[in-house]
Amino acid sequence: MSSAPLGDANLLAAAVKRDPEIDCGVLFQYCDLREIYGPLEYLNVALQYDDLPYRKWSSPLDFNEIGIDGLTPHEACALQLGWELAGGNTTRDRGDMSVAELIELGESETEDRELVVWRWGFMASYEGEIDTAKYSKDQILTILFP
Q1: Cβ(108)–Cβ(26) under 8 Å?
Q2: Cα four-point dihedral sign 60, 130, 132, 110
Q3: What would the pLDDT profile of 74-108 be if each residue is shown by its tens digit?
Q4: What is the pTM for the complete model shown?
């Protein structure tokens, strides 16, 4: 393909537009965690976005609806993770756990597994490394503009 030189930002925008599932916050957080700063590396991560070790919550909590909207962002994230993890625990019903217990579970798990937790999901920061040199710029152009 012959094309006028496209700026790297335009290529990244094209990659994001190509896959509407890409959450740029997650993409940039992953790159920051892995100390990925080169434009070609960013593009490689964007094209392999589905392989990022990010997981959305299976049942996001609505803190306003359940009457605990005064939590700090850290507490809210820890509570959500605790709720998520307790949902997979068959020895105790998460509905019987207090908010403090769920926050403590989330904080403990975050530290033990080195998780990065956001309001809408979490990432195992040292799991599933993306190959940032998988595609050359020419290959990226062919993928984005077939």
Answers
A1: no
A2: positive
A3: 898 999 999 888 876 656 677 788 889 889 999 99
A4: 0.75
